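Problem 12. The chain below contains 646 residues. Write out its predicted structure in token notation.
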Amino acid sequence: MVLGFVAWSVAGAFVLAVSYLAARALRTDRPSLNALIFIFLTILVPTAFLMLAGLAGILRPWLLAAIGAAGLAAILVVARTRRELCEMRAGAGGAWALARSWWASLPLGLRWLTAIALALSAARFTFLVLALPPFTWDSLTYHLTNVAEWIQRGRITTFDTPVDRIWSPANYEVFAVWFVLFLKHDVIIEVAGLPAYLLACAAVYAIGRTLSLGRGASLLAALAYASTPALLLATTATKNDPIMAALFLMMLALGLDLAVRSEVEPGRDRAGQVVVLAAAWLLALGTKPYVIHLTVGLVVAWVLAYLAAGRRAGWRTLPGALLLRLRGNPQGFRWAAGALLTGALLLGSYWYLRNWAVTGNPFYPYGLAVEGAEVIASAEKATPFDLTNFLANLRSFLERFGDKQQRIMPDLPYTTGWGWVAYGLGLPALVWGTVRRWSVRLLLAGFAAALLVLFFSSPDSPWNMRYAIWFPALMALAIGSAFEGLFSGRRWPSLAFGALFVAASGANFLMMLNYNAFSPAAFQAMLSLPARERESADLESKVPEEYRLALEIVTSDDRMGYNVHGNGFLYPLYRADYSQHLVYVPIPQGSTCAGIADAIEARGTRYLFVAPEHTEDWILSLLNQCATEKDVLRERVRGLYVVKRQ
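Solution.
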């Protein structure tokens, strides 16, 4: 593990250097936007790095460390990049001085609130990352199954499995590899969601500043959104929804700044923002295709902001400014923009081109049906784009509004997951802001447009509000606007508002300490084990006991055959250190006991794993019959069958 950490440090130094140089070349004249760009690049650069390595089949720690060392050497050889990298320390000092000045300008109460929130959040995230292994349904089915297979194979590829959703766009999974490949263990894999959480909260602050909110009000909005249960739960639940929310809010911030500001500091222009905006959209496309739907809301908000700002010609200068920067190449802009867009284009297009080439459907395993007519055939289900689906989603949303049907859990079953701050303070603030502030009205129009387009195309299900965890940012910004308009500068009203905010955000925080899903006994059972021995298979409240029993029998030296259906868990079988190799054993209708045994042995194993609710019932019944007859298959432990030839 120590050697793995050394390799990770070398590769990480290269990634950080590239991110810094690119952020320097693409920076704007707004500190809040520069912070967004840098955080974004620390996500995109390692993702592109791992994607290239994975497609080349060199997804190995020391190979990546060697590439990182060579890359750092190349950066230091070039005089300009060496000089800029040497200036990194001075730049960090300047950023620290700016941050201290910013912090000192905030009201004392808000500084205390922020410090306490940061400390409690850091403690919560650290505890949950180390205490619990991955446990959410989608992650155990396909998100992390991809990660495990890629690490074992040393390349990004598809593999034989009944879980068709491994074909879905997987940029988040590629980024998650960064947190497990070098350590060869999933002990901190949940950390993969934290950069997205930070980016999302920073984007809310940047939106507030762009729309003329003060520093304090913008920070209050960021804190309000940071307390959103749906976002908090998903961040350390190995889900890709936080990065989608972060990219949506980041693109909104960049576009709004382009729309409402016509003047920039001397020597600066807006070309870098345009490049980063395009790269963010491509990264989102390769993560979840519903960024196409969210784009409608972005455009609505941008256009309304542009019109409200009274501008008619500002955007016309952008193409010329971009071309001028590309020609002049100041501070490596051409190289930074070209590399960034090339990497983003790869991340945004690869999954769709691969699926199209292999299956004939770029959106495999999903399809598209418009008003009931199938436009793109699907392996699993078609995305319905019609009025009936829209009305069903709208009805479900109204039923879930207020989070009154069920407690908030990571998959958001029958809830919105917006929590006490959004509903208790955000809704009244949104009503006030809609009446009094043009900025809130244009945000409402943009957010509502994005949500309504999602309702047209997202199948009505108990869990689909996880696609909209960005929406509470609207209420958070309304809170900041209302605070500035009604309470700022007035001592007692400010104190009363602060008390309500602390109470609401505290309620959000307390109910998220255990994901609303685990008992103290479950935590105690995990904490009784060393951190590196905590495995998903041991979470009996989430994973059937058969998974743990199978891993107690089958050693890491043996290949394990399995048969689950398209929604079955796979990830727990790989073990936390990815040492268990798996092979899918299909069992078609009409199979015999001898035929099943032959299929198991043909795949290089003696074992077959199955589990209730994860394997078809008729297969479980057939295997039970075979074991009862004691012909060629025996049940070694519950859920694990072994071939026994006479």
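Discussion. The longest helix spans residues 333-359. Students who got a different answer should revisit the alignment rule from Section 12.3.
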